[in-house]
Design goal:
This protein is an alpha+beta fold. It has seven helices and six strands. It is globular, with a radius of gyration of 16 Å.
Amino acid sequence: MAPPGGSTYVLGFSLADVGPDHAGSMFIYKLHEGRVEDSRVLREQAFIRQALGMESSTANPLSEDLFIAYGIKNCSGRSDTGSEMLFCQPIKELWKLRYGGNSLGDPNSGWSQLPNMPSERQQQILQAYRHPDEHHWLGPYCGEQAFRLLKDMQDPVWVENYAKGR
């Protein structure tokens, strides 16, 4: 159910601050007619908890496991007495969309054709995961499109096509 004014809240991310040691900027985005109207920064762990449905969220009011709902593997969490284990492999690999590496066969290399940003063709590929009015490859990536990108990043054929700019 949308809040008053027709706005909705969704989880998402930006590629602005991603790096091998940092998953990037995670957000709860407030959308109006599909466009970002406002955002609230989340820590990576809070994003994972909310996407798993482990933590109450305006962006996941039914506490659904969004990773399962969107077919994303290797994302899990559990909370025991005093400890918490959270993990999401595709979030850890967001940096690979932005940074280039030595070779596609090296799991520690990025997928970008340029050292610090996607090539023109790769930027066009990423555009399919953003609202049509959002033209910058940094994002925002939000809601269903963000989760679709995380899922596609787990497909070796998609990764190869992205890395080769196809």
